[in-house]
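Why does residue order matter? Because the sequence determines the fold. Keep that principle in mind as you read this record.
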Amino acid sequence: MFSWLDPHVILAATGPWALVVCAVIVFAETGLLIGFFLPGDSLVFLLGMLTGAAQSQNEALSTLPLWLVCLVIAVMAFVGDQTGYTVGRLSLRSERISRFVQGRLAPHTAKASQFFARFGGPAILLARFIPIIRTFVPFAAGVAGYGRTRFLFWNSIGALVWGVGLPVAGHLLGGIPWIAQHVDIILIAIVLISVLPIGVRFALTWLRNARTTA
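Structure:
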């Protein structure tokens, strides 16, 4: 079911347009509020892994420079978040957007707002590494009236670290036979590592509250 969301299928089917398609998906994941289901992390990691690989599902990727992949992905991640933030700002004045958000997207935007309220500015950086949450935090920041300059600062850092770090990690680790044969496990690990900082923060908060109660 939903095999078209499998990163392997996407890269194998898009041929020489693989980077363009990945760029659009990265943008849509945060720039469009309906993109939360897209496989951003796993797709970018696999893209970096197959870039320059001697044997690849997509021959065009074997000649694709890693620096170009990093540049395109980082820029599109940045633009996507800025778009989501702008939509959030516009929602304060647009009744149509407001109705859409308060309808089907209400549960997701509520969680993103709580996440943003808890972590403040760094939430914009942290959210970039957390699936689903990263789709709605830029929007939540816009709705909250978070400063444009501060959002630009945190978004730039997040887009750079994520957009360069994931493809490079995939490119370097893809040469290890065990990792090349167990990509699915690695992709799951990426998701788990992405949410680890949040788990640690909540655990520390719970321990402090428990001690205060005691």
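The two ends are 49 Å apart (CA to CA).
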